[in-house]
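User: quick one, sequence for these tokens?
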């Protein structure tokens, strides 16, 4: 049931959804007599794809969500941080990873993952008494994710030393 849910949910992501509309329009154009419906579907699919791929529109949609909470200021230390008294756990989510033992650990992590680990270490150093954790995946099918967690863990362990 879970794999079926994952497959079906992926079909409703913006780009696949637009491609599906385009494909329906092309099928209508090529294999049926419903030329007008095919033209409408192709036009709607292409227009949606262009709108959803437009940075200005996506920024206008995301800005209210991104600016709902101000970023945590890590220029000061300790209890001067807003939220430092209540936030004692810093969680770093893993992302992309290249599993190649010939390259350094920090180069194996994707750019966004490395940025997340660096920010997590920065917050850890600025918040005394906090703990830094990484998100773990227990699924054996997610070996690259697990490797990503291990690589980020090695970087975290090597970078995290509190100032005395």
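Assistant:
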């Amino acid at each position: 049931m879970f794999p079926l849910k994952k497959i079906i949910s992926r079909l409703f992501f913006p780009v696949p959804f637009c491609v599906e509309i385009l494909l329906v329009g092309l099928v209508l154009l090529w294999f049926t007599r419903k030329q007008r419906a095919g033209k409408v579907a192709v036009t709607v699919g292409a227009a949606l794809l262009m709108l959803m791929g437009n940075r200005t529109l996506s920024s206008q949609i995301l800005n209210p969500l991104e600016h709902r909470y101000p970023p945590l200021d890590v220029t000061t230390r300790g209890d001067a941080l807003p939220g430092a008294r209540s936030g004692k756990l810093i969680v770093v989510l893993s992302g992309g990873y290249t599993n190649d033992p010939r390259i350094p650990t920090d180069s194996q992590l994707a750019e966004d993952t490395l940025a997340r680990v660096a920010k997590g270490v920065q917050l850890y150093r600025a918040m005394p008494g906090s703990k830094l954790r990484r998100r773990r995946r227990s699924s054996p099918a997610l070996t690259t994710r697990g490797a990503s967690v291990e690589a980020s863990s090695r970087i975290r362990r090597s970078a995290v030393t509190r100032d005395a």
